[in-house]
Amino acid sequence: MMEKGKSLLLALLVILSLVQSYLLAYSTPYLDAKVKTDLNYVKAEPLGTEEQVENLIFPEQMVLHMGGDKHTVFFPGTRPFYDLILRKLRDRAFKSIQLDSDNTIDWDQVRREDKGVELRFSRAIPFELLQRVFRIDGDFLFSGDSIDKIWIYASKGRDEVRTFFFSTDGRSVYEAQRADLTVGDVEGYVGFGQYWDSYSSTDGQLYVPDAPVSRVLAMQVAFSRYSTEQILENLFTDPGTTRTIQDSLSGPQYYTDTKRGLKVESDSGWMTFTDPVAPTTNNENDYIDNVLSAISFINQHGGWNGMHALTQEVESDNNTVRFQQYYNEVPIISGSKLNLGYMQLVMQQGVVSSYDRSLLVLGEEVTNKAARQLPGGDALRTLIGQTKATGKRIESLFPAYRPMLKDNKLTLLPVWAIRFENGEVAVLTESVAAPIK
Length: 437
Description:
Elements: H1 2-26, H2 31-34, E1 61-65, E2 71-74, H3 81-90, E3 93-101, H4 107-113, E4 115-126, H5 127-130, E5 135-136, E6 146-154, E7 161-167, E8 172-179, H6 183-191, E9 199-200, E10 208-209, E11 213-225, H7 228-235, E12 243-246, E13 253-256, E14 261-264, E15 270-274, H8 287-300, E16 308-311, E17 320-327, E18 330-331, E19 342-348, E20 351-358, E21 360-374, H9 377-388, E22 394-406, E23 409-420, E24 425-430, E25 432-433
Parallel strand pairs: 3-5
Antiparallel strand pairs: 1-2, 1-4, 3-8, 4-6, 6-7, 7-8, 9-10, 11-21, 11-23, 12-13, 13-14, 14-15, 15-20, 16-17, 17-18, 17-19, 19-20, 21-25, 22-23, 23-24
Pfam family, one: YycH
Organism: Cohnella yongneupensis
Protein name: YycH family regulatory protein
Protein backbone atom coordinates (compact mmCIF):
# COMPACT_ATOMS: atom_id res chain seq x y z
CA MET A 1 0.00 0.00 0.00
CA MET A 2 2.85 2.32 0.90
CA GLU A 3 4.64 1.45 -2.37
CA LYS A 4 1.51 2.38 -4.37
CA GLY A 5 1.36 5.75 -2.56
CA LYS A 6 4.96 6.45 -3.41
CA SER A 7 4.35 5.57 -7.05
CA LEU A 8 1.30 7.83 -7.18
CA LEU A 9 3.22 10.73 -5.61
CA LEU A 10 6.10 10.24 -8.08
CA ALA A 11 3.70 10.23 -11.03
CA LEU A 12 2.05 13.42 -9.74
CA LEU A 13 5.45 15.16 -9.44
CA VAL A 14 6.34 14.14 -13.01
CA ILE A 15 3.06 15.55 -14.31
CA LEU A 16 3.58 18.83 -12.42
CA SER A 17 7.10 19.08 -13.84
CA LEU A 18 5.80 18.60 -17.39
CA VAL A 19 3.10 21.24 -16.89
CA GLN A 20 5.68 23.70 -15.52
CA SER A 21 8.02 23.03 -18.45
CA TYR A 22 5.15 23.67 -20.88
CA LEU A 23 4.27 26.99 -19.23
CA LEU A 24 7.91 28.14 -19.30
CA ALA A 25 8.29 27.20 -22.92
CA TYR A 26 5.09 28.63 -24.35
CA SER A 27 4.02 31.46 -22.10
CA THR A 28 5.38 35.06 -22.11
CA PRO A 29 6.65 36.13 -18.70
CA TYR A 30 6.31 39.85 -17.92
CA LEU A 31 9.82 40.30 -16.64
CA ASP A 32 10.62 43.29 -18.90
CA ALA A 33 7.70 45.25 -17.56
CA LYS A 34 8.78 44.70 -13.95
CA VAL A 35 12.49 45.48 -14.29
CA LYS A 36 13.52 49.12 -14.64
CA THR A 37 16.97 50.53 -14.08
CA ASP A 38 18.13 54.06 -13.32
CA LEU A 39 19.18 54.41 -16.97
CA ASN A 40 15.59 54.15 -18.24
CA TYR A 41 13.93 57.39 -19.33
CA VAL A 42 10.30 58.11 -19.97
CA LYS A 43 10.01 59.04 -23.64
CA ALA A 44 8.50 62.50 -23.50
CA GLU A 45 6.78 64.50 -26.20
CA PRO A 46 9.43 65.30 -28.86
CA LEU A 47 10.58 68.92 -28.98
CA GLY A 48 12.81 69.17 -32.04
CA THR A 49 13.20 66.95 -35.08
CA GLU A 50 15.10 63.66 -35.18
CA GLU A 51 18.28 63.18 -37.20
CA GLN A 52 20.37 60.38 -38.70
CA VAL A 53 24.16 60.20 -38.66
CA GLU A 54 24.49 60.50 -42.45
CA ASN A 55 22.88 63.96 -42.34
CA LEU A 56 25.36 65.13 -39.70
CA ILE A 57 28.54 64.36 -41.66
CA PHE A 58 29.50 66.68 -44.52
CA PRO A 59 32.61 68.64 -45.56
CA GLU A 60 33.31 71.92 -43.82
CA GLN A 61 35.02 73.09 -47.02
CA MET A 62 35.31 72.10 -50.67
CA VAL A 63 38.55 73.36 -52.20
CA LEU A 64 38.37 73.43 -55.99
CA HIS A 65 41.66 73.32 -57.87
CA MET A 66 41.27 74.65 -61.41
CA GLY A 67 44.81 74.28 -62.71
CA GLY A 68 47.35 77.02 -63.23
CA ASP A 69 47.50 77.55 -59.44
CA LYS A 70 43.93 78.89 -59.46
CA HIS A 71 41.61 77.88 -56.63
CA THR A 72 38.33 78.65 -54.94
CA VAL A 73 36.56 77.39 -51.83
CA PHE A 74 32.93 76.36 -51.43
CA PHE A 75 31.35 76.24 -47.98
CA PRO A 76 27.99 74.60 -47.10
CA GLY A 77 26.34 78.00 -47.64
CA THR A 78 27.72 78.23 -51.20
CA ARG A 79 24.52 77.12 -52.82
CA PRO A 80 23.69 75.48 -55.17
CA PHE A 81 27.24 74.52 -56.19
CA TYR A 82 28.26 72.88 -52.91
CA ASP A 83 25.07 70.79 -52.82
CA LEU A 84 25.42 69.72 -56.47
CA ILE A 85 28.99 68.48 -56.09
CA LEU A 86 28.33 66.70 -52.81
CA ARG A 87 25.22 64.99 -54.14
CA LYS A 88 27.07 63.75 -57.24
CA LEU A 89 29.99 62.41 -55.19
CA ARG A 90 27.65 60.59 -52.82
CA ASP A 91 26.33 58.64 -55.81
CA ARG A 92 29.79 57.46 -56.87
CA ALA A 93 31.37 54.19 -55.73
CA PHE A 94 34.91 54.01 -54.31
CA LYS A 95 36.32 50.47 -54.33
CA SER A 96 39.56 48.53 -53.87
CA ILE A 97 40.97 50.81 -51.16
CA GLN A 98 44.73 50.39 -50.69
CA LEU A 99 47.15 51.92 -48.24
CA ASP A 100 49.80 54.23 -49.67
CA SER A 101 52.38 56.63 -48.24
CA ASP A 102 51.81 60.36 -48.17
CA ASN A 103 55.27 61.12 -49.57
CA THR A 104 54.90 59.22 -52.84
CA ILE A 105 53.07 62.16 -54.50
CA ASP A 106 54.07 65.80 -54.72
CA TRP A 107 50.80 67.19 -53.39
CA ASP A 108 51.88 70.80 -53.82
CA GLN A 109 52.39 70.14 -57.52
CA VAL A 110 49.03 68.37 -57.76
CA ARG A 111 47.15 71.27 -56.18
CA ARG A 112 48.85 73.82 -58.46
CA GLU A 113 48.67 71.91 -61.76
CA ASP A 114 45.88 69.32 -61.67
CA LYS A 115 42.15 69.93 -61.64
CA GLY A 116 40.49 68.45 -58.60
CA VAL A 117 38.27 68.70 -55.54
CA GLU A 118 39.30 68.47 -51.89
CA LEU A 119 36.61 67.61 -49.34
CA ARG A 120 37.76 68.80 -45.92
CA PHE A 121 36.01 67.75 -42.72
CA SER A 122 36.09 69.70 -39.49
CA ARG A 123 37.13 66.56 -37.60
CA ALA A 124 38.46 63.13 -38.42
CA ILE A 125 35.64 60.80 -39.49
CA PRO A 126 36.03 57.04 -38.96
CA PHE A 127 35.70 55.05 -42.19
CA GLU A 128 32.71 53.22 -40.69
CA LEU A 129 30.81 56.51 -40.34
CA LEU A 130 32.07 57.88 -43.65
CA GLN A 131 30.56 54.83 -45.32
CA ARG A 132 27.14 56.07 -44.19
CA VAL A 133 27.67 59.11 -46.46
CA PHE A 134 29.76 57.82 -49.39
CA ARG A 135 29.75 54.48 -51.17
CA ILE A 136 33.14 53.34 -49.89
CA ASP A 137 34.21 49.72 -50.08
CA GLY A 138 34.58 48.54 -46.49
CA ASP A 139 36.42 45.29 -47.17
CA PHE A 140 40.01 46.40 -46.60
CA LEU A 141 42.58 46.01 -43.86
CA PHE A 142 42.70 49.53 -42.44
CA SER A 143 38.96 50.32 -42.39
CA GLY A 144 39.26 51.19 -38.68
CA ASP A 145 41.19 54.37 -39.51
CA SER A 146 39.78 57.92 -39.52
CA ILE A 147 39.78 60.37 -42.43
CA ASP A 148 39.83 64.18 -42.41
CA LYS A 149 40.20 64.85 -46.15
CA ILE A 150 39.24 63.32 -49.52
CA TRP A 151 41.09 64.52 -52.61
CA ILE A 152 39.86 63.69 -56.11
CA TYR A 153 41.86 64.92 -59.08
CA ALA A 154 42.37 64.37 -62.80
CA SER A 155 46.06 63.80 -63.61
CA LYS A 156 47.32 66.42 -66.04
CA GLY A 157 48.02 64.94 -69.46
CA ARG A 158 46.60 61.54 -68.49
CA ASP A 159 43.07 60.24 -68.94
CA GLU A 160 42.63 59.07 -65.36
CA VAL A 161 41.05 60.20 -62.09
CA ARG A 162 42.67 59.39 -58.77
CA THR A 163 40.91 59.44 -55.38
CA PHE A 164 42.75 59.60 -52.06
CA PHE A 165 41.55 59.43 -48.45
CA PHE A 166 43.91 61.14 -45.98
CA SER A 167 44.43 59.60 -42.56
CA THR A 168 44.64 61.81 -39.51
CA ASP A 169 48.17 60.63 -38.73
CA GLY A 170 49.43 62.94 -41.48
CA ARG A 171 51.53 60.19 -43.07
CA SER A 172 49.21 57.58 -44.55
CA VAL A 173 46.79 57.93 -47.42
CA TYR A 174 44.42 55.43 -48.97
CA GLU A 175 43.75 55.28 -52.69
CA ALA A 176 40.56 53.95 -54.26
CA GLN A 177 41.92 51.87 -57.13
CA ARG A 178 38.47 51.73 -58.70
CA ALA A 179 36.10 54.71 -58.65
CA ASP A 180 33.36 55.38 -61.18
CA LEU A 181 34.58 58.90 -61.91
CA THR A 182 35.73 60.30 -65.24
CA VAL A 183 37.90 63.25 -66.18
CA GLY A 184 34.72 64.89 -67.45
CA ASP A 185 33.13 64.53 -64.02
CA VAL A 186 36.05 66.29 -62.32
CA GLU A 187 36.15 69.05 -64.94
CA GLY A 188 32.42 69.56 -64.42
CA TYR A 189 32.85 69.97 -60.65
CA VAL A 190 35.75 72.38 -61.12
CA GLY A 191 33.78 74.33 -63.68
CA PHE A 192 31.39 75.51 -60.96
CA GLY A 193 34.25 77.51 -59.45
CA GLN A 194 35.30 79.50 -62.52
CA TYR A 195 33.18 82.49 -61.66
CA TRP A 196 33.46 82.28 -57.87
CA ASP A 197 35.78 84.15 -55.50
CA SER A 198 39.48 83.52 -56.10
CA TYR A 199 41.39 81.95 -53.19
CA SER A 200 45.10 81.31 -52.81
CA SER A 201 47.36 79.49 -50.36
CA THR A 202 51.06 79.50 -49.57
CA ASP A 203 51.08 76.18 -47.73
CA GLY A 204 48.15 74.24 -49.16
CA GLN A 205 46.47 74.28 -45.75
CA LEU A 206 44.81 77.70 -45.41
CA TYR A 207 43.10 79.21 -48.44
CA VAL A 208 42.48 82.96 -48.22
CA PRO A 209 40.21 84.99 -50.53
CA ASP A 210 42.23 87.34 -52.71
CA ALA A 211 39.63 90.10 -52.32
CA PRO A 212 36.97 91.03 -49.73
CA VAL A 213 33.86 88.82 -49.70
CA SER A 214 30.66 90.83 -49.98
CA ARG A 215 27.93 88.18 -50.24
CA VAL A 216 27.22 88.13 -46.50
CA LEU A 217 24.37 89.52 -44.40
CA ALA A 218 23.85 90.49 -40.79
CA MET A 219 20.31 89.83 -39.57
CA GLN A 220 17.94 89.54 -36.66
CA VAL A 221 16.42 86.10 -36.25
CA ALA A 222 13.13 85.29 -34.56
CA PHE A 223 13.47 82.67 -31.83
CA SER A 224 11.55 80.87 -29.11
CA ARG A 225 12.67 78.90 -26.04
CA TYR A 226 12.08 75.45 -24.71
CA SER A 227 10.34 75.86 -21.36
CA THR A 228 11.78 74.48 -18.14
CA GLU A 229 8.83 72.10 -17.87
CA GLN A 230 9.52 70.70 -21.34
CA ILE A 231 13.16 70.08 -20.52
CA LEU A 232 12.41 68.46 -17.15
CA GLU A 233 9.97 66.09 -18.83
CA ASN A 234 12.59 65.20 -21.45
CA LEU A 235 15.52 64.65 -19.12
CA PHE A 236 14.24 63.25 -15.82
CA THR A 237 12.70 59.83 -15.32
CA ASP A 238 10.05 61.31 -13.01
CA PRO A 239 9.90 65.14 -13.25
CA GLY A 240 7.65 65.20 -10.19
CA THR A 241 10.54 64.15 -7.95
CA THR A 242 12.84 67.05 -8.94
CA ARG A 243 13.73 69.84 -6.53
CA THR A 244 14.46 73.42 -7.58
CA ILE A 245 17.34 75.48 -6.20
CA GLN A 246 17.68 79.08 -7.37
CA ASP A 247 20.50 81.36 -6.24
CA SER A 248 18.78 84.58 -7.33
CA LEU A 249 15.95 85.78 -9.50
CA SER A 250 18.31 86.58 -12.37
CA GLY A 251 20.89 83.84 -11.81
CA PRO A 252 21.02 80.23 -12.97
CA GLN A 253 18.43 77.73 -11.85
CA TYR A 254 19.36 74.27 -10.59
CA TYR A 255 17.20 71.14 -10.62
CA THR A 256 17.93 67.70 -9.20
CA ASP A 257 16.22 64.40 -8.46
CA THR A 258 19.09 63.56 -6.03
CA LYS A 259 20.95 61.71 -8.82
CA ARG A 260 20.78 63.78 -12.00
CA GLY A 261 21.33 67.52 -12.14
CA LEU A 262 20.27 70.32 -14.50
CA LYS A 263 21.56 73.87 -14.65
CA VAL A 264 19.77 76.48 -16.78
CA GLU A 265 21.15 79.97 -17.41
CA SER A 266 18.11 82.23 -17.17
CA ASP A 267 19.34 84.93 -19.53
CA SER A 268 21.09 82.96 -22.26
CA GLY A 269 18.99 79.79 -22.05
CA TRP A 270 22.07 77.56 -21.92
CA MET A 271 21.61 74.25 -20.12
CA THR A 272 23.98 71.69 -18.65
CA PHE A 273 22.59 68.28 -17.70
CA THR A 274 24.65 65.78 -15.72
CA ASP A 275 23.94 62.12 -15.03
CA PRO A 276 26.81 60.47 -13.12
CA VAL A 277 27.80 57.19 -14.71
CA ALA A 278 29.49 54.53 -12.62
CA PRO A 279 33.05 53.79 -13.83
CA THR A 280 33.55 50.44 -15.51
CA THR A 281 36.47 48.06 -15.43
CA ASN A 282 36.85 48.39 -19.20
CA ASN A 283 38.32 51.81 -19.93
CA GLU A 284 37.95 51.58 -23.71
CA ASN A 285 35.49 54.03 -25.27
CA ASP A 286 34.44 53.31 -28.84
CA TYR A 287 33.96 56.64 -30.60
CA ILE A 288 31.54 55.31 -33.23
CA ASP A 289 29.32 53.76 -30.56
CA ASN A 290 29.43 57.02 -28.60
CA VAL A 291 28.47 59.08 -31.67
CA LEU A 292 25.51 56.87 -32.53
CA SER A 293 24.37 56.78 -28.89
CA ALA A 294 24.68 60.58 -28.62
CA ILE A 295 22.53 61.09 -31.72
CA SER A 296 19.91 58.68 -30.36
CA PHE A 297 19.90 60.50 -27.01
CA ILE A 298 19.38 63.92 -28.63
CA ASN A 299 16.61 62.49 -30.82
CA GLN A 300 14.74 61.49 -27.67
CA HIS A 301 15.74 64.33 -25.34
CA GLY A 302 15.37 67.73 -26.98
CA GLY A 303 15.75 66.96 -30.66
CA TRP A 304 17.50 69.03 -33.30
CA ASN A 305 16.90 72.65 -34.20
CA GLY A 306 18.04 73.00 -37.80
CA MET A 307 21.24 71.86 -39.49
CA HIS A 308 24.14 70.39 -37.45
CA ALA A 309 27.48 68.75 -38.24
CA LEU A 310 29.62 66.30 -36.31
CA THR A 311 32.66 68.38 -35.47
CA GLN A 312 35.82 68.47 -33.39
CA GLU A 313 35.73 69.36 -29.73
CA VAL A 314 38.55 71.06 -27.85
CA GLU A 315 41.28 68.51 -26.99
CA SER A 316 39.25 65.77 -28.64
CA ASP A 317 38.90 62.30 -27.14
CA ASN A 318 36.63 59.32 -27.68
CA ASN A 319 34.39 60.33 -24.77
CA THR A 320 33.22 63.70 -26.08
CA VAL A 321 30.84 64.15 -29.01
CA ARG A 322 30.15 67.63 -30.38
CA PHE A 323 27.72 68.88 -33.02
CA GLN A 324 28.11 72.28 -34.69
CA GLN A 325 24.90 74.23 -35.33
CA TYR A 326 24.34 76.02 -38.64
CA TYR A 327 21.90 78.72 -39.66
CA ASN A 328 21.29 79.22 -43.38
CA GLU A 329 24.14 76.71 -43.90
CA VAL A 330 26.57 78.97 -41.97
CA PRO A 331 28.03 77.81 -38.62
CA ILE A 332 27.19 79.76 -35.45
CA ILE A 333 30.22 80.46 -33.24
CA SER A 334 29.63 81.08 -29.54
CA GLY A 335 30.75 84.45 -28.28
CA SER A 336 32.32 85.28 -24.91
CA LYS A 337 28.95 86.50 -23.61
CA LEU A 338 26.59 84.01 -25.25
CA ASN A 339 26.79 80.24 -25.56
CA LEU A 340 24.97 79.20 -28.72
CA GLY A 341 25.73 77.14 -31.78
CA TYR A 342 26.59 73.64 -30.59
CA MET A 343 25.53 70.61 -28.61
CA GLN A 344 28.09 68.57 -26.69
CA LEU A 345 27.79 65.27 -24.87
CA VAL A 346 30.28 63.38 -22.72
CA MET A 347 29.79 59.64 -23.05
CA GLN A 348 30.88 56.60 -21.07
CA GLN A 349 30.69 53.55 -23.32
CA GLY A 350 27.52 54.74 -25.02
CA VAL A 351 25.89 56.19 -21.89
CA VAL A 352 25.45 59.98 -21.52
CA SER A 353 27.11 61.51 -18.47
CA SER A 354 26.70 65.18 -19.46
CA TYR A 355 24.70 67.08 -22.08
CA ASP A 356 25.17 70.76 -22.99
CA ARG A 357 23.00 72.75 -25.39
CA SER A 358 21.03 75.95 -25.86
CA LEU A 359 17.29 76.10 -25.21
CA LEU A 360 16.88 78.82 -27.85
CA VAL A 361 15.05 77.66 -30.96
CA LEU A 362 15.94 79.74 -34.02
CA GLY A 363 13.06 80.42 -36.39
CA GLU A 364 12.91 81.12 -40.12
CA GLU A 365 11.68 84.72 -39.83
CA VAL A 366 14.52 87.17 -40.51
CA THR A 367 14.39 90.97 -40.17
CA ASN A 368 16.74 93.97 -40.30
CA LYS A 369 19.04 92.50 -42.94
CA ALA A 370 22.19 94.50 -43.58
CA ALA A 371 24.84 93.93 -46.25
CA ARG A 372 28.26 93.22 -44.75
CA GLN A 373 31.74 92.56 -46.09
CA LEU A 374 34.42 90.17 -44.86
CA PRO A 375 38.03 91.27 -45.42
CA GLY A 376 40.30 89.41 -47.84
CA GLY A 377 43.68 89.69 -49.49
CA ASP A 378 46.67 91.14 -47.66
CA ALA A 379 44.56 92.55 -44.82
CA LEU A 380 43.27 89.09 -43.94
CA ARG A 381 46.69 87.47 -44.40
CA THR A 382 48.17 89.98 -41.95
CA LEU A 383 45.61 89.02 -39.30
CA ILE A 384 46.34 85.34 -39.87
CA GLY A 385 50.07 85.99 -39.57
CA GLN A 386 49.60 87.83 -36.29
CA THR A 387 47.61 84.91 -34.90
CA LYS A 388 50.19 82.37 -36.04
CA ALA A 389 52.87 84.44 -34.29
CA THR A 390 51.28 83.51 -30.97
CA GLY A 391 52.41 79.93 -31.54
CA LYS A 392 48.99 78.45 -32.29
CA ARG A 393 48.62 76.41 -35.46
CA ILE A 394 45.55 77.34 -37.52
CA GLU A 395 43.90 74.42 -39.29
CA SER A 396 40.88 76.07 -40.88
CA LEU A 397 39.47 79.46 -41.93
CA PHE A 398 35.74 79.74 -42.60
CA PRO A 399 32.87 82.25 -42.55
CA ALA A 400 30.56 82.04 -39.54
CA TYR A 401 27.92 83.90 -37.54
CA ARG A 402 28.66 85.43 -34.16
CA PRO A 403 25.40 85.61 -32.15
CA MET A 404 24.45 88.60 -30.02
CA LEU A 405 21.43 88.56 -27.67
CA LYS A 406 20.21 91.94 -26.43
CA ASP A 407 16.77 93.13 -25.31
CA ASN A 408 15.40 89.69 -26.24
CA LYS A 409 16.55 90.18 -29.84
CA LEU A 410 18.99 87.76 -31.46
CA THR A 411 21.37 89.18 -34.06
CA LEU A 412 23.72 87.10 -36.22
CA LEU A 413 26.84 88.96 -37.36
CA PRO A 414 29.13 87.57 -40.14
CA VAL A 415 32.75 86.93 -39.11
CA TRP A 416 35.82 85.05 -40.26
CA ALA A 417 36.37 82.18 -37.82
CA ILE A 418 39.44 80.00 -37.35
CA ARG A 419 39.94 76.56 -35.85
CA PHE A 420 43.18 75.75 -34.10
CA GLU A 421 44.92 72.39 -34.04
CA ASN A 422 43.50 71.55 -30.60
CA GLY A 423 39.90 72.08 -31.80
CA GLU A 424 39.45 75.55 -30.29
CA VAL A 425 37.39 77.91 -32.45
CA ALA A 426 37.76 81.68 -32.33
CA VAL A 427 36.65 84.76 -34.22
CA LEU A 428 39.52 86.08 -36.32
CA THR A 429 37.86 89.30 -37.47
CA GLU A 430 34.43 90.89 -37.71
CA SER A 431 32.73 91.97 -40.92
CA VAL A 432 32.25 95.59 -41.85
CA ALA A 433 29.46 97.47 -43.59
CA ALA A 434 29.51 96.66 -47.30
CA PRO A 435 30.41 99.63 -49.53
CA ILE A 436 27.55 101.20 -51.42
CA LYS A 437 27.81 100.55 -55.13
